[in-house]
Write a structure and sequence with these properties.
Elements lengths: L10 E6 L3 H4 L7 H9 L1 H14 L4 E6 L13 H9 L22 E5 L11 H7 L4 E7 L4 H11 L3 E10 L3 H11 L5 E3 L1 H9 L7
Parallel strand pairs: 1-2, 1-4, 2-3, 4-5, 5-6
Helix pairs in contact: 3-8
Length: 209
């Protein structure tokens, strides 16, 4: 049993920042992209997404994009400044698109945010989750450094259970990933794996005598 995914609870899969300009195959030299490749998380995420669709549960691709003129992009931290300087993740661009290894299929949602470091910041994600009657969110993607801890913290604050699919996530380095999943994230999320999560979302409530 996966805590937060007990039979009868509805879950949504949130896939964080799996975009061409962040984890795509052309990102040679990027430590994060290297970790994504090393851990082979993209095909695992695709399989997990298919399991959610088959179970009739929402799949949401959470992306970060910049407006073409950078207007409204708040440069209030080092990472925000770096993204503005690189100006790669422009909304509508190939770099900002979800990687082909995790196709956006009919019925999926793309939740695009234009500022902040968490998929809940300035987006309609919470409202969409509530529209689907969601009790728990399963996190996949990148990174265990920033976006995923931020997503977990905000989700808990909004009343959701949080489950991290550990074999479907990566951080900037193996060391920071290990630190987060062993010391920080367990305080606010259930650390699990994709096989256990699939089993949990397919489990049926026991019939009462």
């Amino acid at each position: 049993m996966v805590k937060g995914l007990e039979p009868g609870k509805r879950a949504a899969l949130l896939i964080s920042e799996c975009q061409n300009g962040i984890v795509g195959g052309g990102m040679s030299g990027s430590p994060l992209a290297a970790e994504v490749s090393k851990r082979s998380i993209l095909p695992k995420i695709a399989e997990l997404a298919e399991a959610f669709r088959a179970a009739g549960l929402p799949v949401m691709h959470c992306t970060i994009t910049l407006p073409p003129d950078l207007k409204g992009w708040n440069v209030n931290c080092v990472l925000a400044a770096r993204l503005a300087k690189e100006a790669k993740l422009i909304s509508g661009s190939e770099a900002a698109a979800v990687v082909p290894e995790i196709p956006v299929l009919h019925g999926d949602s793309v939740v695009e945010r234009h500022h902040g470091m968490s998929p809940f910041t300035g987006t309609g994600l919470d409202a969409e989750l509530r529209r689907h009657g969601i009790d728990a969110v399963v996190l996949a993607g990148v990174s265990t450094n920033i976006a995923l801890p931020g997503a977990a913290t905000e989700a808990v604050g909004l009343g959701y259970h949080v489950i991290l699919a550990e074999d479907c996530v990566a951080g900037g380095t193996a060391e920071t990933h290990q630190l987060q999943i062993t010391m920080h994230l367990p305080l606010i999320a259930t650390i699990s794996d994709s096989a256990s999560i699939v089993q949990a979302i397919n489990a049926k409530p026991e019939a009462r005598p």
